[in-house]
Amino acid sequence: MKTKLLFLALVILMGCKKESVSTPTITLDVTYLSNQDFLLKGNVNEKCFRGFIISGTAGAKYNDAEAATLGYDTGSGAFSMAIGLSRNTVYYFKAWGIVDGTNEYVYSEEQSFKTW
């Protein structure tokens, strides 16, 4: 009887797999529009909260004090935002997304530009 109960418990435990959480893949494309105007274009392959980060400091994350979070939205696919910036300044841009069901942020590669 003990052997049967142990086997049944083992079968139940093996059948209970933790559901895997998908990590979105995020890309960023920055298009120059004029001296101080840019179009930020992101793309995400999973439905998630997403947006852009702009900062005067390289490596900024979502809640960093020196970064601005732009365009908070949800869904999958392409998303974009036009922005106007101050003259003669270096800016760093990233697209971001939140992994579904977590508080884990995923970022695109960072890009930087200097306005005129």
- Note poorly predicted spans: 4-18
Largest sheet descriptor: 6 strands, antiparallel
Principal-axes shape call: globular
Total helical elements: 1
Query: What percentage of amino acids are in beta strands?
Result: over 45%
| End-to-end gap | 80 Å
Please describe what this structure looks like.
By secondary structure, this protein is mostly beta strands. 12% of the residues lie in helices and 52% in strands. The chain is built from 1 helix and 6 strands, in the order H-E-E-E-E-E-E. The chain has one helix spanning 2-15; strands spanning 26-32, 37-55, 67-84, 90-98, 105-107, 111-114. Strands 1, 2, 3, 4, 5 and 6 form a 6-stranded antiparallel beta sheet that branches. The longest helix is centred in the N-terminal third of the chain and has 14 residues, at 2-15. The radius of gyration is 21 Å and the shape is globular. Mean pLDDT is 82; it is low at 4-18.
